[in-house]
Amino acid sequence: MKLLSLLALAAVAIVPVRPAAAQDGEPLTSERIERWISTLEDLTDWSEGREDVDAALVPGRPADGMQAIGDPFRTALKAIESLDEYDEVLSIIESNGYDDSAEWAETGNRIVMAYTSLRMAAEEPNVSQEIQKALDELEKSGLSDEQKESMREMLLASADAMQTYSNAPIQDQDALKPYLERLDGIFDSQ
After folding, report:
1. Sign of the CA dihedral with 5 first, then 46, 77, and 92 last
2. DSSP 177
3. Most buried among 21, 38, 63, 78, by the most CB within 10 A?
4. Are 164 and 18 in contact (CB under 8 A)?
5. Is 142 domain-assigned?
């Protein structure tokens, strides 16, 4: 997986989130993961050609000036709440067995956290080294002090986000392992 993809996924956690185990007492099971993926695929298919809706439903991409930070799926749903198509989105979520959109969003946040944690585990030494290298190069750059400070803050926020995501519960990570390749395909296509 590309480093930039990892950083993009990690960036959705810049605002610290509660550990996933505290968010939802139910474990991530195969059924929950399958249902969430199926719903995301249905929403992705439905949103084809609907750029305003598509932008909101993809975690980490801006929609009407909003960024999906810390709670990407709930933020995405909030971003399209005022659109005419919002009821269609809710209908798709409910047709996949969810009582409400909050349940789907919470499951998605846990899946993204576990996914990112697993992917970062393989890349962590490299990512940490890359961030340190970028910080070192930043100091040598010809940027103004203000620009350097802004870039430094952004890099350190990414490092903090990666730390947050690396703390996904082991149970969630274990449940997600059989789905990594499928999720790679979904997230890489976004």
Report:
1. negative
2. G
3. 63
4. no
5. yes
In a domain, 31, yes or no: yes
Residue 69 has a pLDDT of 47
Q: What is the pLDDT of residues 102-144, one digit of tens each?
A: 999 999 989 988 998 888 877 766 777 788 888 888 888 888 8
Q: How far is residue 12's CA from residue 162's CA, in Å, rounded to a whole number?
A: 10
In the chain, how many domains are there? 1
The parent domain of residue 152 ranges over: 3-11+25-188
Provide mean pLDDT across the span 141-159: 86
Instruction: Check: CB of residue 126 under 8 Å from CB of residue 33.
Output: no
Question: Which segment of 30-44, 52-66, 93-107, 140-154 scores lowest on mean pLDDT?
Answer: 52-66
**Is pLDDT of 59 > 70?**
no
Q: Does any domain span residue 19? A: no
**Sequence-distant contacts of 54-60: CB under 8 A, at least 24 apart:** 56/80, 56/83, 57/89, 58/190, 59/9, 59/12, 59/108, 59/112, 59/190, 60/8, 60/9, 60/11, 60/12
Q: DSSP letter at 149?
A: H
